[in-house]
Design brief:
143 residues; alpha/beta; Ribosomal Protein L13p, Chain: A; globular
């Protein structure tokens, strides 16, 4: 029996909507990353982008469990002594879509393939999104 390898012209993409309201941020990000990679499809091929488009809505209503709101997020300006930090709770209050985007990006491959996959992610703080024309399917799961 031969192993199936997807060809770029055979890849069909769908659109999914994930409602993050009341769900832990990490679980939403994990589900979104798996869909972006294409791990939910039987045609998954590790070296190709076989994933689908994902729209995450209600990012502001996602939950940070435990003490994660107090955990720091670091960034560096590129200058000597330029290490800056803030907490996940402050970022969630000001820009919840950025925190969700960062969580999903960290779960994707850190190479050109991952950069290609993250372009298919759209995150919105509220319930409205401009992708109704793509007829996205609402993705629901337990937990």
């Amino acid at each position: 029996m031969k192993t199936y390898v997807a060809k770029p012209r055979e890849i069909e993409r769908e659109w999914f909507v994930i409602d993050a309201a009341g769900k832990p941020l990490g679980r939403v990000a994990t589900r979104a990353a798996a869909i972006l990679r294409g791990k939910h499809k039987p045609t998954f091929t590790p070296n190709l982008d076989t994933g689908d488009h994902v729209v995450i809505i209600n990012a502001e209503k996602a939950v940070l469990t435990g003490n994660k709101a107090d955990e720091p997020i670091y960034r560096h300006s590129g200058y000597p002594g330029g290490l800056k930090s803030t907490t996940k709770g402050k970022v969630m209050a000001a820009h919840p879509e950025q925190l969700m985007h960062r969580a999903v990006k960290g779960m994707l491959p850190h190479n050109k393939l991952g950069a290609q996959m993250i372009q298919k992610l759209k995150v919105y703080a509220g319930a409205e999104h401009p992708h109704a024309a793509q007829m996205p399917k609402l993705l629901e799961w337990e937990g």
